[in-house]
């Protein structure tokens, strides 16, 4: 049964992650509605990736609650969360370098949708169809037989995204999806993410490239020292003195304001 449009897809209640005496995420609370694109920004070390790790189960929260589709998922292992509908990409270009593009996505499609206690000897037709759809969604059709270790950075990022989509997510977490890319490549990934969002997949993305963040996000959350210092519309970022002082700076704030003016008048 699907989540009603009026009910939150994800709720984080005072989520905290501590590493000894260090509090990396401190009582983080927010609600995510189905179909939203939430952009998370902030300085390095703000706790953004640690928050992703808590939500995706890679590094469970020390305290607090994470509710997904009305179910308390706090502390569940990553594979259970993947099967429940939460997929994730990473800052670094994770992949099986010696396998082909298609082989990587086949693994994600085969193991990412359900438990496989006794894996079969063959990839079924359904899995093959899911792989084809995922490759097409990110623009990697025709590159099936290329070896992953030889791919350029853009294609490796798209491959991670294809693997995430192959697991049939309801919620997609993207950690710095355009880090290290040039402007043209950033525009390509932006177009891909817009198509994914148009399919109804809810997205949370972490990114330092602010034009990517503000142009894609329906709402933005800025973190600093593990805490939320801003949550609201992208347009409000440049008006928030705290965000400008600790993160954007005057120059970036002005450039961002000009970008949003151009976007509004386009």
UniProtKB/TrEMBL annotation:
Keywords: ATP-binding, Nucleotide-binding, Transport. The keyword Repeat does not apply. InterPro entries: AAA+_ATPase, ABC_AA/LPS_Transport, ABC_transporter-like_ATP-bd, P-loop_NTPase. This is ABC transporter ATP-binding protein. SMART domains: AAA. It holds the Pfam family ABC_tran. GO terms for molecular function: ATP binding. Residues 10-250 form the ABC transporter domain.
């Amino acid at each position: 049964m699907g989540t009603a449009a009026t009910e939150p897809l994800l709720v984080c209640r005072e989520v905290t992650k501590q590493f000894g005496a260090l509090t990396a995420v401190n009582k983080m609370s927010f609600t995510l509605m189905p179909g939203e694109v939430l952009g998370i920004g902030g300085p390095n070390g703000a706790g953004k990736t640690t928050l992703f790790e808590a939500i995706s189960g890679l590094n469970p929260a020390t305290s607090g609650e994470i509710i997904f589709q009305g179910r308390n998922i706090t502390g569940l292992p990553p594979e259970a969360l993947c099967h429940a509908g939460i997929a994730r990409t990473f800052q670094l270009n994770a992949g099986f370098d010696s396998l082909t593009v298609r082989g990587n996505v086949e693994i994600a499609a085969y193991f990412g949708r359900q438990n496989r206690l006794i894996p079969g000897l063959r990839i079924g037709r359904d899995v093959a169809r899911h792989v084809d759809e995922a490759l097409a969604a990110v623009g990697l059709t025709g590159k099936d037989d290329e070896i992953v270790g030889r791919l350029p950075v853009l294609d490796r990022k798209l491959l991670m995204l294809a693997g995430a989509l192959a697991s049939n997510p309801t919620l997609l977490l993207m950690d710095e999806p355009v880090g290290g890319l040039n402007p043209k490549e950033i525009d390509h990934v932006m177009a891909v993410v817009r198509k994914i969002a148009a399919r109804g997949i809810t997205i949370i993305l972490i990114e330092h490239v602010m034009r990517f963040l503000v142009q894609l996000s329906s709402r933005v959350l800025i973190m600093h020292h593990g805490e939320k210092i801003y949550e609201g519309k992208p347009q409000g970022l440049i008006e928030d003195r705290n965000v400008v002082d600790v993160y954007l700076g005057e120059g970036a704030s002005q450039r961002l304001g000009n970008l949003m003016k151009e976007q509004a008048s386009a």
